Amino acid sequence: MLKGMKAYIDSFELITILVEKSLCYPLKVFYFIDGDIKRKLEFMDLAEDCGEFYKFRMKFDPTIELNKEYIIEDESGNRCFLRSGSIIRSPEFERRYAYEGPLGAEYHKEYTIFRTWSPVAKKLIVELYTPNGKERHNFTYVNQGLWECVVDGDLDGVGYLLFVKVNERLQALLDPYAIASAENEKYNFVINPDKLYKMKYPKPEFSGRYTDAIIYEASIRDFTNQLKSENAGTFLGMVENNPTKGGPTGLDYIASLGITHLQLLPTYDFGGVDDVEKDSRYNWGYNPDQYMVPCGWYSKHPEDPYSRLNELLELIDECHKRGMRVVMDVVFNHVYHWKNFGFEKLVPGYPYRLNFDSTVNNATGCGNTIATERFMNTRFISDTLTFYAKTYNVSGFRFDLMGLLDINSLNQAYKELKKIEPKIIVYGEGWNMDNPLPDEYRPHMYNHKKTPGYAFFNDRYRDYVRGSQWDKSFGYAFGVGKSLYDLNKLVLGSCLDYYKFEEPTQTINYVECHDNYTFYDFGFYALKESDSKVKDAARLALSLILLSIGVPFIHAGQEFFRTKRGVENAYNASDYINAIDYKRRDENISNVNMVRDLISIRKEYDCFRISRKEEVLERIHTLEGATTLHTAGIMCENKDCSLYIFCKNDKSEYKVDLCSSEMIFDGFKKCSVKKDSYVLKEPGVYIIRKDL
What we know:
Layout: E1 5-11, E2 14-20, E3 30-34, E4 37-40, E5 48-49, E6 53-59, E7 71-74, E8 79-84, H1 91-96, E9 104-107, E10 111-117, E11 123-130, E12 133-138, E13 140-141, E14 146-152, E15 159-166, E16 169-173, E17 188-189, E18 215-218, H2 220-224, H3 250-256, E19 261-264, E20 268-270, E21 288-294, H4 307-321, E22 325-330, H5 342-346, H6 375-391, E23 396-399, H7 407-420, E24 425-428, E25 454-457, H8 459-465, H9 484-491, E26 507-509, H10 519-526, H11 531-547, E27 551-555, H12 575-578, H13 582-587, H14 589-604, H15 613-619, E28 620-622, E29 631-637, E30 641-648, E31 654-666, E32 670-680, E33 684-691
Parallel strand pairs: 1-8, 18-19, 18-27, 19-22, 22-23, 23-24, 24-25, 25-26, 26-27
Antiparallel strand pairs: 1-2, 2-6, 3-4, 3-7, 5-6, 7-8, 9-10, 10-14, 11-12, 11-15, 13-14, 15-16, 15-17, 20-21, 28-29, 29-30, 30-33, 31-32, 31-33
Helix pairs in contact: 6-7, 10-11, 11-14
Protein name: Pullulanase
Pfam families: Alpha-amylase, CBM_48, PulA_N1
GO molecular function: hydrolase activity, hydrolyzing O-glycosyl compounds
């Protein structure tokens, strides 16, 4: 085949041929060859000068089958293979090959069916790794891009790898729909679902109202790497309890706070780590490789086809036992190595958004941006989420860089998830990041009305309370006199006046997460404030989060002033930087207890958990006369009492006159102080109850 000539199917009626200028002659002729049949192609227009080559656009027979091999020949007998081009991104391709049936390995004791999707593959093979050695079996093309291979015999626990021939190359790939893998992604396994761990505990009760949730974000590795047992750094390490003087550890500690939903950093199989030499590399996990396979780095036995699945199942079961539902962190905006991802090898050019110059878009900063709007990508997202909801009893999903996905995919996934778990919660990062998808299809915060089932991380809340890390500005928590009108609207669910959302259920109220500085590090290292000043600010900020209307979100260790030693982006920084420090927890146990107290108050009084804008307007009233440069007050109506909440960010004295009342929270802890007036001195949030 001639290297200087290339041909592509760009639509069902168009072939584009590129020929080096040295090979072009005045009377250029091209032929389409299908086996023994040779047909002359018709020019659509004049050749286009593209620098080192000419581009020819030829009319094409729409009855072509993309899974067959064809050849293009010129008048001199020069030949090249006809490859799939931009046709794979055409509406007609989407319509013809929108396959909705099963994919992956379907196990039966007597046989296993392997299914995969590739309208453009010329050949597909499954290679099995049995006790007797390797076996290869050919797939058969069915229709709509579906290839199928039935292998007789009991393949329980047998390893397998796929091989696909596209663009004249036979390449190995992992099955995108596989649910089990060998260590370090060597190959996949056939799994008998009946042998998986059976959960013992039902999901904890939950109303389904987002504002009743209290979310705690944690990393498996960070919580367990300090263990002195074989479970260090693993799923089951979270279950271990090795009490210190400050109390329990692992899941027992998290549950003791009163958390309703534990959000785990990515638990699927990701790159950037070593499943065997576990301490050789560190990563948070935002490098997706195998979406439906539990992470081998977190498994005690990553080489065992069942161990890592059962370990994750047991961990989730143990969360349920302790009264916590589980939220899974998912990354559908990019993959780790885009050229090696299974779908890219099966259908080159289909999985990703492209720039105007046909290069792979990099809005994510990770080398690629998944084209979630394409049918099979949309389907893959729904399939992955529903798989975890069904198989692992996952109760919610947090979407990384959610604004880079598309509105239709998210709404479709939400619809399917609600059928499985009516009380599912879904939320994510709704940043509006520039990319090829038109703005009206992007699920960013300003399009929140188009995704009513989703909540969004509220960066306005974060930057007002904490300050902006981009310009190193001070937020309200650090004592700055700021607009208390803004504070009022943020505390009341960010849904009134011109604030962000339609309902308070759409705001995730936070000042810290795994990304960027911890709150303590922002204050201490970026703003150069003293330790005591930063801790006062952190205490105030966390108090506001737990008492604001909306969804409170706590980053693991935030309650005891977690530090990552000043590292702003610690995604691969090491255990030394990222590990949970229980000694620091013990040293700051009073602040941990404050969090427990505030969570119990939030659960006791439903005015903190209002889920409708109309109810906010009916039950919450701003105390206009109580507002100063540094202090704001609101009154919340409950069934049998009114709660007066005062937020102050400085150390000046502030007097509250309220006859026949009781202070139930003094800025640091629960209390019971009955007076007619109070003097508030320290920064913090104060709650005074007055019975009706």
